[in-house]
Specification:
Helices cover 21% and strands 26% of the residues. It is of the alpha+beta class. The chain has one domain.
């Protein structure tokens, strides 16, 4: 009984510390807590994506996340993927958005690297050249096969993070590592409790994204309790925490050396 009490107290303290870190970060940025209207919030380019015209001869695949709009940005992120084939001069951007259409999968809803309603995007994945070219058809196939294109639930999913996790599972070469505060990434239906993690390499056991365990090549070890994820990234040493995502070495999956 004593050990259970210690575990519960430690769990609560970790939650509070993680939330405090997220709150301080949001307060410092002055965006998430500004109370600005979604209609006037910044959505121009953050200047992160390579110029598609200048890099017309190179295939590029990138994945971004940004804090969700308003108070939810304290606890969760919104992700999207962009890509272009060699010879193309514009990006295709795909994500899941809950409002505005019965089909929640959106194409070019916003600029490739645009601020997400005032929040600065963070680059998670950057593949260029022949490797990127080879994975794009698989990404397109994964987008088409997404099983919840007309369903959206903030918690525990399926939502925007479920969509990117689906792509990651189907395209292991992407080496996608969604942060711990990507709520919905671990959503799995009851008929498919065991399978690949979002990185596409490893194993995941998850009950509707509410309770589960992930052992992944990119994720490391992660425990999901009521949609809140805790873990340890061994490959790029960091704690994986709810609200803040990760605390430790910054991580960007980067392969820009291949020709193409």
């Amino acid at each position: 009984m004593l050990y259970l009490k210690i575990f519960i107290i430690g769990f609560i303290c970790l939650l509070l510390l993680s939330f405090a870190q997220s709150y301080l970060s949001a307060s410092h940025s002055g965006v998430t807590l500004s109370g600005q209207s979604w209609s006037t919030a910044r959505r121009d380019s953050a200047g992160i994506a390579p110029d598609a015209v200048a890099f017309r001869n190179r295939a590029i695949v990138q994945v971004y996340t940004a804090p969700t709009f308003g108070w939810r940005g304290l606890v969760a992120v919104h992700p999207w993927i962009i890509f272009k084939k060699a010879g193309e001069t514009v990006y295709s951007r795909y994500e899941v958005v809950s409002w505005g259409s019965s089909n929640v999968v959106r194409h070019n809803y916003a600029l490739p690297d645009g601020y997400w309603f005032g929040a600065t995007p963070r680059l998670l994945v950057d593949h260029r050249g022949s490797e990127a070219e080879a994975m794009i058809p698989h990404i397109e196939a994964a987008i088409k096969s997404y099983p919840w294109s007309h369903t959206y639930r903030v918690w525990p999913g399926p939502n925007s993070n479920t969509f990117l996790a689906h792509i990651g599972r189907n395209v292991p070469a992407l080496r996608l590592d969604l942060p711990a505060n990507a709520i919905g990434k671990d959503y799995r239906p009851l008929r498919n409790l065991i399978g690949l993690p979002p990185s596409g390499r490893g194993v995941q056991i998850s009950l509707l994204g509410i309770l589960g365990l992930t052992l992944g090549a990119e994720e490391g070890i992660e425990l999901n309790i009521s949609g809140l994820s805790f873990g340890l990234d061994v490959k790029s040493p960091a704690l994986r925490l709810p609200f803040t995502g990760r605390m430790g070495v910054d991580k960007v999956i980067n392969d820009t050396s291949a020709g193409g």
